[in-house]
Amino acid sequence: MEVVNVNDTKSFVTKxxxxxxxxxxxxxxxxxxxxxxxxxxxxxxxxxxxxxxKAEEICFIxxxxxxxxxxxxxxxxxxxxxxxxxxxxxxxxxxxxxxDLVFLxxxxxxxxxxDTILTx
Length: 120
What we know:
By secondary structure, the protein is an all-beta fold. The chain has one domain: Jelly Rolls. Helices cover about 0% and strands about 50% of the residues. It has strands at about 10-15, 20-25, 35-40, 50, 55-65, 65-70, 75-80, 80-85, 90-95, 100-110, 115-120. Strands 1-2-3-10-5-8 form a six-stranded antiparallel β-sheet, with no helix packed on it. Strands 7-6-9 form a three-stranded antiparallel β-sheet, with no helix packed on it. A two-stranded antiparallel sheet has the order 4-11. The chain is globular and about 40 Å long. The termini are far apart. About 30% of the residues are buried.
């Protein structure tokens, strides 16, 4: 069994400007095909619009409120919402609140900078 506590991981900034901490990924576990990370967007900030040629992504909002755009659809999101981004779908996240927007990101295959294409 492998157990990794998010508080034992170091944060880094993704290519799209989100701050993440990889909880489980090929870089710190025996996983080969997926990753799980905690992501954070600071109040009144946003990520850069981007897409992943290979990875499908699931985001699950833990705290805060914001909005997400996937392709041409924009929706407001808050704690307990899950969002799906399929490969090649452009997406962007805004924190519309006064607190950090914190969410889990699951990517398959695992997140890499090389699989992130900025579109703005």
